[in-house]
Amino acid sequence: MTRSLGVCYYPEHWPETQWPEDAARMAASGLTWVRIGEFAWSRLEPAPGKLDFDWLDRAIDVLGRAGLKVVLGTPTATPPRWMLDRHPDMLAVDAAGRPRKFGSRRHYCFSHRGYLAECKRIVALLAERYGANPHVAAWQTDNEYGCHDTILSYSDAARAAFRDWLAQRYQSPDALNRAWGNVFWSMEYSGFDQIDLPNLTVTEANPAHVMDFRRFASDQVVAFNRAQVDILRRYTRAPVAHNYMGRITEFDHYAVGADLDIASWDSYPIGFLSDRLEATDAHKADFLRQGDPDFQAFHHDLYRAVGRGRWWVMEQQPGPVNWAPYNPAPLPGMVRLWTWEAFAHGAEAVLYFRWRQAPFGQEQMHAGLLRPDSEPAPGLAEVETVARELADAPMAQAAPADVALVFDYASAWAWDTQPQGADFDYFRLCFAWYRALRRMGLNIDIISPDTDDLSQWKLVLAPGLFTLPDTLRAALPSCSGAVVFGPRANSRRPDFSIPPDLGPSLPGLDARVARVESLPPGSALPLANGGQFVHWAEELEGKAVVVLLREDNRAAMVRAGGLYYLGGWPSDATLFSILSDLCAAQGIATRDLPSALRTRSDGKSRFWFNHGASALEWEGLHLPPASMLRVPA
Amino acid sequence: MTRSLGVCYYPEHWPETQWPEDAARMAASGLTWVRIGEFAWSRLEPAPGKLDFDWLDRAIDVLGRAGLKVVLGTPTATPPRWMLDRHPDMLAVDAAGRPRKFGSRRHYCFSHRGYLAECKRIVALLAERYGANPHVAAWQTDNEYGCHDTILSYSDAARAAFRDWLAQRYQSPDALNRAWGNVFWSMEYSGFDQIDLPNLTVTEANPAHVMDFRRFASDQVVAFNRAQVDILRRYTRAPVAHNYMGRITEFDHYAVGADLDIASWDSYPIGFLSDRLEATDAHKADFLRQGDPDFQAFHHDLYRAVGRGRWWVMEQQPGPVNWAPYNPAPLPGMVRLWTWEAFAHGAEAVLYFRWRQAPFGQEQMHAGLLRPDSEPAPGLAEVETVARELADAPMAQAAPADVALVFDYASAWAWDTQPQGADFDYFRLCFAWYRALRRMGLNIDIISPDTDDLSQWKLVLAPGLFTLPDTLRAALPSCSGAVVFGPRANSRRPDFSIPPDLGPSLPGLDARVARVESLPPGSALPLANGGQFVHWAEELEGKAVVVLLREDNRAAMVRAGGLYYLGGWPSDATLFSILSDLCAAQGIATRDLPSALRTRSDGKSRFWFNHGASALEWEGLHLPPASMLRVPA
Amino acid sequence: MTRSLGVCYYPEHWPETQWPEDAARMAASGLTWVRIGEFAWSRLEPAPGKLDFDWLDRAIDVLGRAGLKVVLGTPTATPPRWMLDRHPDMLAVDAAGRPRKFGSRRHYCFSHRGYLAECKRIVALLAERYGANPHVAAWQTDNEYGCHDTILSYSDAARAAFRDWLAQRYQSPDALNRAWGNVFWSMEYSGFDQIDLPNLTVTEANPAHVMDFRRFASDQVVAFNRAQVDILRRYTRAPVAHNYMGRITEFDHYAVGADLDIASWDSYPIGFLSDRLEATDAHKADFLRQGDPDFQAFHHDLYRAVGRGRWWVMEQQPGPVNWAPYNPAPLPGMVRLWTWEAFAHGAEAVLYFRWRQAPFGQEQMHAGLLRPDSEPAPGLAEVETVARELADAPMAQAAPADVALVFDYASAWAWDTQPQGADFDYFRLCFAWYRALRRMGLNIDIISPDTDDLSQWKLVLAPGLFTLPDTLRAALPSCSGAVVFGPRANSRRPDFSIPPDLGPSLPGLDARVARVESLPPGSALPLANGGQFVHWAEELEGKAVVVLLREDNRAAMVRAGGLYYLGGWPSDATLFSILSDLCAAQGIATRDLPSALRTRSDGKSRFWFNHGASALEWEGLHLPPASMLRVPA
Ligand SMILES: [Zn+2]
Ligand SMILES: [Zn+2]
Ligand SMILES: [Zn+2]
């Protein structure tokens, strides 16, 4: 597999006379890909039906002739202002009942049929015109589904669509009443038209109601995306991608990804550290100009699964951004490090966002590879270094991993609906497990809960899995090593009810969760070996073999053969210890890396990443601050 | 008086075939009472006018034949979905102007006439059918008035009713203008129809306006409840109760209680510690699995007053709940302790919430006495222990108290309307005084501000009493000991204006509050004896005898005979010292208990409660963790 | 110039029989001015068109005959309730889309044409009747523009007016699209009627859009005020003032002030310390009963500029207020100190708010010079002291200052629109610079960004100036000393775009801001000399002389002749050091005052102010706590 670099570009922002020079500089910098078009609807169709594609023809031509391959985006994330005159009710509505107005982007409700039809029309026009264009080598649908909290809409359109969705799913109000347990608090419905969206209720809505709304909302994204893909397929053989974001869990990325050829994501390590990661102040200070050492890797591994092996970074942070609460500049070396880390995790391409910093608009403070005055920004030299290094590097190959971590979007919805403890968050739970594995220096695969064959991994981990799908249940025996379920795993049936046997109901494992506790910050439940549970602890009963005890002599972890159940949320140190032992038992060699050091192997090479601001010595290697070192595996 | 136990049960949640076994197990566990029906409207009347009471007949029969006495709840806290089609404007509206939608419970505005009529209709049907049923031994109106912040509604119905209420009260807009001081900021009205609810004003509304809205809102609850009671009385001689909540001050419980036979409340010690009590993190950590040692006792004593001696715990926490930010499990022993503490304070009955944990709905994570799989939850064994202990215990009798604390709902509204210092809260103030008395090991009576005879107490305390009612003023001489008024007492006239002599205007006490200060956290005003005022300090003038000085030589506390006025909010230690001295002066023997130890005597027995997680030795007694010990008084 | 004292009075709040005694006491206390009328519309016009000015005639007569001079306020900050029946859409609308209702004050949208017409009508009636009244010696328009966040309204009236304003400014949608960069995210408009107010957008609105809305909103205030002034001028020769507030930056006070004769402001030192100043808890505790030592001085100097030399304190805090989160009482001496500080900064008059504490209404807990029972409040004696001291004091004269600080309202809007770092605030930045200069014991002038002659200052400072106006650019050579621009200065063009050369684009200074960083609390960027930047740091390039280095050897401050650019936000200590050095270089003698000590000279006298709670010795002077000492300059 070839590794390549690219950049996001907005020809419509610049005078046409500048395009050739820009294109030439891109190519000279070692870039292969250029993504364009995804916000250009007002220039492609300045008035309803008044199309102007000529400029795009010319832009693609200029870029293509410079040797660049174009990723063409559908412009549906930014409908022009005239769209509102045609569809005044197309706006999403927030949970407080307020329409989310025009004036930025993503101002549409996924459930609005009229807007969907407009999207299909513009996509068809673009696909027809460029589907066979030799320079258009890939497509992107829309942009960053879910960004700015745009999945959950409480609009009239959403309400009507939700009712339809429920009618399809349940066929009768009585079936729905039974599934949701609506006898509770007299919440029974006699018709689907009585069912409202679960916002602004007096106290919390029925979790079953909320969960179905979350499923519905995810399905709407899948359908919206599929409508575009279906059209593109008719006109092009180029691969189709979407650019996901970091820690967006409001829709099922696997389901969207199933309709696409490539998963890609937009990686902003420094912004994400600041605005979407639980961490101590000390940790955030240590990695202020580097971003978290595991957050990007997690998403690389996640989107490799979503893309069924094919994945890109569609937008890579190249310098300070504009949108985080604070926006420091990356340490010198980090742009190179981030890029190589993506490649080490199997990325086919890394594109930087964006070519030249725009002097206007909402992102005028977002760095590009060029400054607004067209001078090189500091990131550009690092990009050019990577381009040179790529030329010498061995071809990438699929990297083996001994360990797999199940990541499930429905579980995120479930525990968001019913956290039971205010700080119980599914992503946070999985990320803690992932970080512990990374600290051991392991290659990790993230896998879907619908995986039907576990034979390639020695250790499969599934903390917090809302329900155990039949497929995965059937696949459990295929794992030659151990499968470890964690707290809350299979504690609910799909209708959100507690299973008659209380869960986790794992095959051959005689263990029930008799009772659970959520614990506030500062409280912990001690284990017999000196470790502790935080956030969450369960009282287990049953005859399964106890492999870990709590200080109160209850079981903390039990097993039956290679099947484990861990009944609590271990502190980071405790988790490291537990997972290290499990690895050792499976013959998986582990390390104990310093907090800033991470590694990955692709079988041919081993990559070392020093995310720290200080140099490190490790296994005879010298790693300067913010550096990557590649050695034979 | 007999003490008895019971449980809350939802036959409509379970197959009818399971009822007999459930009933038998309840009886076998030593339970006497079973509360049912209060959320069952959608099963009693699945469609408008389509009644189905047969299942309830059978449920009452099954329970009754098992020897249980039924408390039958009116189902008006959960109107069915069809009610909204009949009365689309029945929903309450929040302070931001948003209707509070169907999908949970308490989705009604107390001022909606149409919904009130529906409630009267269903209550009449229930009363007619079950009023003379031999198994129905008590009734409950609605459920937890005020829970989920449902007293203050800003709906059209509320606005119309408020205007009527004002017209009745003031008779003319000019009278209202004068009473409210509407000449201030040109707020004068020329008609009652011009008066809006006091939400969403540019800056704060006139406190007199807000205070009347608070009075009106309380009156609406009283009227709503009375409408049900009036109907029940026509059909039944069984006592009628309502189940109040913890720290709900939005309506006058004394006024609601005056129409009822029994006051009851829903006691969730661990949840309340977490979500409705000001305390340090250390205190909350110390009592994480026990709840606050004084919070339940305060409400026991309060609702004993509201019930004019007759009171129950209608819902007792039996294990972890679902609704607090964090939900740990009670220490072993706490369910027994809580139950006995209620009895020690005079409860006639304690009912647990609920029999079996429901596997569905909003409260699926709320423990019951049984788990969802019908196995006993840990609380059940403690309940059975209490049942056995009750059999051996002497009959309860009314317990004497030397000290009374006045608790007044109007004062809560007043200082909520005008805190003057951001952390001035009337409940908090009274609770601090109550806790100091509890730490002294005293029996305490909480009394209404309308008490007309103080002769039974040696010490009567009234901190923060908004206005001094004429009745209480007339009763002051009846107290043989001391009456102590605290900060802000009688500092306003009923129309919220400052009295011409500035207050407290106490008979025979020459003292005026010349000026007040509110103090931020971390600031304190030192007293001459080493103590300090926090939150609030007043500058007193007048010729009354000074009994406590501030460091600046101003009076901190003054007296005239047995009448005292304390011009500040003492720190906890200072308050303990002041009240200890006052007790000593009145010949009231006090203790200085450790923070986890509490006691109460009913004249015949002395009960000791160790709320701590460690054992205690005290007065020759050994108290294990989370334990109750009963000794002869 | 004569210095005088006065008070705010509400004759409509008190029985007419009390007026003569009140007036006599005012005069006897040494007061000269009495402000009345500004909230009395409901008494002047109880019903539409039904006028009653007789009581006001009599009040003015009583006050005037007592020897007092009247400041008459137009009553437009409190339209009566009937106004809403005439103009139901006159209310402002908040950013969440909710009308801000009647029931307090300032319940109007500045853009409502109908309400503006009503204001012009009532002002004309007042002006006609009292314009030549010999007792009416000054006028005040409205009251505290901007208080309670009332400048930005999202009403229909505001939307319509904004569209007109934009049409005037840009003439064509295309011009607007180009200026705003609306090609970004397809935000282009084809007509002004498509443009909405920039609230409730999905994510942030275009900063250019927001900035124009901020300019528009400020212009609406200027126009509203001018409409009143134009009418007053036709009938009176008395000076016209408005009373501004502390730290209100939502409108351009210079522009409003240009239409007025006198600037005045409402000075509440203790309330402001608590509710609108960034400071450590320790600082707030140190000055709990004194207010911040520099906050009032800043506004004195600011409003001296706004009033072009003529300014008053229209409302001076005389004791505890009601509206801050906590409301402690001033230390004895502070009322005198605050008054003298105003005079030392050039105030012509200081009026206290208010004469007698009102026992009713929203401000019933706001101290006056009299208590509600008409007894003197503690502040009154200090006022009388000042009155006596004034008689002996030399006449005031204009005070020279060596240093000027540019303060620009548009910069406040700009960085509020685009902070880039969550705690970047323009007022905070300027105030930090101001405080450093005060700590040096300097007289400071605050000047408008439109100043056209800098020759009177040796040092002119302009941190954070959004754009450099042509006038100021042209005036730079007029400064004989140094002009220092600070972080973000001239970093934008007026249309909010980044300048092609990146800024600061200062004449003769070869320096560009290559990149900026915002830093979270706790992070700092070290300088070579041991100092540090906090909040904000810039990477400078160019050939300008480097006068200060960062630890990473980049330039921190550069110069060309007397023109400096400082590329970061220094910590307080670093800023003191930098500005001290700059003063020294310009031959300006500085001190290093303790945190509680401040001083100002008016050329004839030097005033020393000890804001601390402890006595101070300084330069041979003994300064008791909370004291002012005047010595010959
Ligand atoms: Zn992006
Ligand atoms: Zn309850
Ligand atoms: Zn004011």
TrEMBL record, chains A, B, C:
Identify the CDD domains for this entry: A4_beta-galactosidase_middle_domain (cd03143)
Superkingdom per UniProt: Bacteria
Keyword Zinc carried by entry: yes
Entry's Pfam families?
Answer: Glyco_hydro_42 (PF02449), Glyco_hydro_42M (PF08532)
The UniProt family comment states: Belongs to the glycosyl hydrolase 42 family.
Q: What is its EC number?
A: 3.2.1.23
From the Swiss-Prot or TrEMBL record, give the protein name.
Beta-galactosidase
Among Gene3D superfamilies, the record links this protein to: 3.40.50.880, Glycosidases
Q: Which EC class is this protein assigned? A: hydrolase
Q: Which InterPro entries match?
A: Beta_galactosidase_Trimer, Class_I_gatase-like, GH, Glyco_hydro_42, Glyco_hydro_42_N
Q: Which UniProt keywords apply?
A: Glycosidase, Hydrolase, Metal-binding, Zinc
**Per the record, what are the reactions this protein catalyses?**
Hydrolysis of terminal non-reducing beta-D-galactose residues in beta-D-galactosides
Task: Outline the extent of the Glycoside hydrolase family 42 N-terminal domain.
Answer: 8-391
PANTHER family linked to this entry: BETA-GALACTOSIDASE GANA, BETA-GALACTOSIDASE YESZ
According to the UniProt entry, the coiled-coil residues are none
Q: Which organism is it from?
A: Roseinatronobacter domitianus
Q: Please state every residue range assigned to the domain named Beta-galactosidase trimerisation.
A: 401-588
